Amino acid sequence: MHVEEGKTREAAEMSILLDALPKKHPADPSGLQLAQLITSISNRKVPVSSFSRMWNLGSLQAKVTLGYFAYWLRSVSVMRTRKSGSERKPTWLRP
Question: Can you give the pLDDT at residue 15?
Answer without folding.
Answer: 84
